[in-house]
Design goal:
Oligomer: single chain
Structural class: mainly alpha
Radius of gyration: 30 Å
Largest sheet: none
Order of helices and strands: HHHHHHHHHHHHHHHHHHHH
Number of helices: 20
Distance between the termini: 69 Å
């Protein structure tokens, strides 16, 4: 057995089942579903922030088109600020609130619960955990990305405690009979469990602040800081991308890794958005690794950075590859590459293993270094994972250099894929030629065909002779 076969067998036997088990884990699926549902909120909030935040102060520019353009942008920003700023504040600026409710919603769906109570209870628990500010009002500063991990912890904990108490019928008040609304019956049955959950949340929040001198969200942020900082490094970016692509090559979907990372991606993006809205320069934002960084600058055309490969496939000499390329090119522009992955295919394709696995980490390392050095701006907005990458790069950073970098990366990806693609193309062309002009299966068949050839030609010769005579 070859080394590659042994590796493949080991991954299929040990790693694949574990990875699939992680991907199907209840909390991972719930968190992923919640964040996927909230994509429109990030997109709408991002566009609102872009419109009200011109990247250049027009007063610093010389007279000309550039000054006129940014002066006009500033005028639009001033006019739309009252409406768009509140949209930003209630989308990205309140994303943790929606996460708490979303987690409870999907957990309730998982357990076949149809009542609204888990959602309301998770929201109330989150508000208790963020506590009050100096004015004795709810500390709304934790509604944005700063409270995201608190929302995850409190939302899941509140739901599971409530479900346990409800299933055990703790303090259940039965109210049934004709004319009793089902909602009233359900709410009274849940009165004691809800009370216990809210009192427990209040106690945890109070004890946390008493012991640490800081509210619960600050304590969570302190505990999560090493993990967040560890993920937001060039080595983590490269290693995570390698793991994702190796698993993808073996047929394990990238969400096994990117799903659990979504809270970090979106928390970093929310922090960058808040910093940019507060006036921080785009090149000095806190984080590099965000949702748009991963999907816009690394996965150009989809996981594996396959947009360049799709372009190569369109012009292939192989009928099979060309057909797949033509079907895949347009979706790849919008970062959808399943037609390419399954149609070419890329999975279990030893010829294309190297570029498929390594191109995306190379993209990530290059862009991380450029952002870390301040050459291009960091991401603070999210145009959506399926935005064409050059456009997405411009929108997420408001830096024209970022768009040019993506175009350059596409060309680099083409160059990396090209030699491996040509080898694979040669293989496919040979296969297609063999199918079109099949050779005899064995020497005996060839000899039989040779013996039959004169007999087949004889009638023609005799006919020709008769005609001549």
């Amino acid at each position: 057995m070859s080394v590659m076969n042994r590796i493949t067998s080991g991954i299929e036997r040990w790693i694949a089942p574990a990875a699939n088990k992680i991907a199907n884990q209840k909390y991972i699926k719930v968190i992923q579903s919640t964040f996927l549902t909230l994509i429109p909120f990030f997109t709408i909030g991002s566009f609102a922030l872009i419109i009200i935040s011109p990247p250049v102060d027009f007063t610093t520019l010389d007279p000309g088109f550039g000054r006129s353009f940014f002066q006009g942008w500033q005028a639009v920003a001033d006019f739309t600020y009252p409406a768009l700023n509140v949209i930003y504040a209630t989308t990205i600026g309140a994303i943790s609130v929606y996460v708490a409710g979303g987690l409870a919603f999907y957990l309730a769906r998982h357990h076949k619960m149809t009542t609204f109570i888990p959602v309301a209870l998770a929201l109330a628990t989150f508000l208790i955990m963020v506590g009050l500010n100096e004015e004795e009002a709810i500390a709304s500063q934790y509604f944005s990305g700063t409270g995201l991990f608190t929302a995850i912890v409190s939302g899941i904990a509140a739901f599971e405690l409530y479900r346990f108490l409800y299933d055990k019928r703790v303090g259940r008040i039965e109210l049934s009979g004709n004319g009793v609304p089902p909602a009233l019956s359900e709410s009274l049955a849940s009165l004691v469990p809800i009370t216990i959950v809210l009192v427990a949340a209040g106690a945890v929040a109070a004890v946390t602040e008493w012991l640490s001198g800081a509210p619960f969200p600050d304590l969570i942020s302190i505990l999560m800081a090493p993990v967040i900082d560890g993920v937001d490094t060039i080595w983590a970016v490269v290693i995570l991308a390698l793991i994702v692509m190796i698993l993808w090559w073996f047929g394990i979907h990238d969400t096994v890794v990117t799903g659990p990372l979504s809270p970090f991606f979106l928390s970093n993006l929310a922090a960058n958005s808040a910093a940019f809205a507060a006036g921080t320069a785009a090149v000095a934002l806190p984080f590099v690794l965000t949702e748009p960084f991963w999907w816009t600058f690394m996965a150009i055309g989809g996981s594996g950075a396959t947009l360049g490969l799709a372009f190569l496939a369109v012009w292939s000499r192989s009928k099979h590859i060309k057909t797949v390329g033509r079907l895949s090119a347009v979706p790849a522009l919008f970062n959808i590459n399943e037609p390419l992955i399954f149609g070419l295919p890329l999975m279990y394709n030893p010829t294309l293993f190297f570029p498929f696995v390594f191109v995306m980490p190379i993209n990530g390392g290059i862009v991380y270094a450029l952002m870390e050095s301040g050459f291009i701006s960091r991401t603070f907005a999210d145009g959506g994972w399926n935005m064409p990458s050059p456009v997405g790069a411009l929108l997420s950073t408001l830096d024209w250099k970022a768009a040019l970098i993506v175009v350059g990366l596409i060309l680099l990806d083409v160059l990396i894929y090209y030699p491996f693609f040509k080898v694979y193309e040669k293989q496919k062309v040979a296969e297609e030629k063999a199918d079109d002009d099949p050779a005899p299966a064995n020497p005996a068949d060839a000899a039989e065909l040779a013996n039959e050839a004169p007999d087949a030609a004889a009638p023609t010769a005799r006919t020709a002779g008769t005609t001549t005579a």
